[in-house]
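Exercise 7.
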Amino acid sequence: MKPKLVIVLGPTAVGKSELALALALRTEGEIINADSQQVYRFMDIGTGKPSPADRQRVPHHLIDVVNPDEEFNAALFRRLASEAIEQVHCRGKTPIVCGGTGLYLKALTHGLFVGPGQSPEIRRDLEERINAKGLASLYQRLVSIDASVTATIHPHDRQRIIRALEVYQSTGKPLSEWHKEHAFGEDPFDLLKIGLARDRAELYERINRRCDQMVQNGFLEEVQRLVSLGFGLQLKPLCSVGYRQMGAVIQGTVNLAGASIEMKQETRNLAKRQLTWFRRDREIRWYQPEAEQEEIFQAVSRFLG
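Solution. The predicted structure, written as tokens, is:
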């Protein structure tokens, strides 16, 4: 029999961590993080990591795995998460994967698309174009070539934009077509995917409050500390939503009030992209976090038997 795996997913600020913690306490579970930013050390406030108290109550895995200047990707996540899930099962506990990084969840549950090898020449050419015309010009080019794949790639995600264009230029086939052909047919787990959803206005209000709370809790100071530790603002993790805006304040290109407004807008845009990704997954059972919490508990109980 395939090992059972509970996944709690949804857009940012919807309430995933709170539900995962409640489920873990009910089922003697352990939580495996599937948020691409919480794997980085020293990035606590801006990534919304579980509190030290919560991490004492329930074991959490794949948090604080690498430094911000170290490589982390879907392939590494898949390997580490699979190892953690196996260890949790061996202890007789329930593994609960929690996060909103759709690519990581897809890699874990249905395999990973590797694709054609890298081309140093194409990559060098794309980097030169970014330096000459800016990243936005490459993103617009990708939109014209493969609009469907841009639904899940942020306009500031330099690495994924370059990779998508590299695949197209080296093969003549858009990345989305490669994904369709790969089919992601692996099926290593017996899955229960719990998707959390809220009314849009309610979700956006939660996002706005969370962003304000992060600033009040010392988000700017956290980024200043990262810089003092020698981590450059150009690093991929520090170009993510929130960190990029706080970095701009440090560089003096915007004030904190302006950065906070932009952070809220970009976080709302992130939530839209996450929902676009997840809505295509027919394996997900959708629930309202508080109104249907008891239904979630019952579904998990039936699933675990």
